[in-house]
Amino acid sequence: MSLKVYINGKLYDKEDAKISVYDHGLLYGDGVFEGIRSYNGKVFRLREHLDRLWNSAKAIWLQIPMSKDEMAKAIEDTLRVNRISDGYIRVVVTRGVGTLGLDPNHCQEPQVIIITDYIALYPPEIYEKGLEIITVSTLRNHPAALSPRIKSLNYLNNILAKIEGLQAGCIEAMMLNHKGEVAECTGDNLFLVRNGRVLTPPIEAGILEGVTRQAVIELARESGREVLEIPLTKHDVYIADECFLTGTAAEVVPVVKVDSRTIGDGRPGPVTKELMARFRQLTRS
Ligand code: PMP
């Protein structure tokens, strides 16, 4: 059976799920999206993802043509139709069909797309051995130009950084902000551990407010750890005891090498391992 894709209230076979080439989502990356996971038939932190989607839409003057409750129901219905209990959900809201000019006032109605599928995670050995990443030359978008807090369909900033990383043999890459501080990775937030404290760049560093980031901050604090959201430099990364990344697809993934510097003793550290276990418990219980 072919997977069904939701577009504006109707379900289509994956092969027939299509939108117009005049959609400004395609022509200009004019739209917003979310990547969400479902574990054991339950959507993880759905409310938080929907809040972020609505905030992203608000920031770009895009009115999502339904309520959050209706969206939640549409997501759950689409998962059910496809019989997916452990999967990945991609919600996309585009500006809709318009003319070839930029003016979004010519766009008729936003297109709401819900894809439910399975996610290809990083290879399992990465979670045991850890990831090697590099800093790339592509800076994260200046927050005053296009805020990284908006999860927009315009992901070129991240894609350019990803290409740089891949060309250096790294599947994830660290991006700095316009001040030279550590921002985040191309599709994951970054954390350090130093002297038992958990450190991560603040939202003002120009990053996406990751749902997994927030969950991990909560888990670390619940286990009695101090968590600081403070500006970090590459130097802080190099001298950290541990480093790990968080994201909906990646979950919690250890990093053991950055810019050819070994982090800690070159193996996933105890705090990282503990948070990986706690996150697994949170999502799988
Ligand atoms: N930063 C960026 C740029 C991302 O694309 C993502 C993935 N959505 C994240 C961080 C992690 O966010 P989340 O935990 O909400 O998936």
List the helices and strands and how they pair.
Elements: E1 4-7, E2 10-13, H1 24-28, E3 31-39, E4 42-43, H2 46-59, H3 68-81, E5 87-94, E6 111-117, H4 124-129, E7 131-135, H5 156-167, E8 173-176, E9 182-185, E10 189-194, E11 197-200, H6 211-222, E12 227-229, H7 234-238, E13 242-247, E14 251-258, E15 261-262, H8 270-284
Parallel strand pairs: 7-8, 7-14, 11-12
Antiparallel strand pairs: 1-2, 1-6, 3-4, 3-5, 5-6, 8-9, 10-11, 10-13, 13-14, 14-15
The chain binds 4'-deoxy-4'-aminopyridoxal-5'-phosphate (PMP).
Structural features, described:
With 285 residues, the chain is α+β, with helices and mostly antiparallel strands. It folds into two domains: 4-117, D-amino Acid Aminotransferase, Chain A, domain 1 (2-Layer Sandwich); 124-284, D-amino Acid Aminotransferase, subunit A, domain 2 (D-amino Acid Aminotransferase, Chain A, domain 2), CATH 3.20.10. The protein contains eight helices and 15 strands. It has helices at 24-28, 46-59, 68-81, 124-129, 156-167, 211-222, 234-238, 270-284; strands at 4-7, 10-13, 31-39, 42-43, 87-94, 111-117, 131-135, 173-176, 182-185, 189-194, 197-200, 227-229, 242-247, 251-258, 261-262. The strands form two sheets. Strands 7, 8, 9, 10, 11, 12, 13, 14 and 15 form a nine-stranded mixed β-sheet that branches. A six-stranded antiparallel β-sheet has the order 2-1-6-5-3-4. Strand 7 (131-135), helix 5 and strand 8 form a beta-alpha-beta unit. The model has no long low-confidence stretch (mean pLDDT 97). The structure holds 4'-deoxy-4'-aminopyridoxal-5'-phosphate. Residues 35, 158, 184, 187-189, 208, 210-213, 246-248 line the site of 4'-deoxy-4'-aminopyridoxal-5'-phosphate.
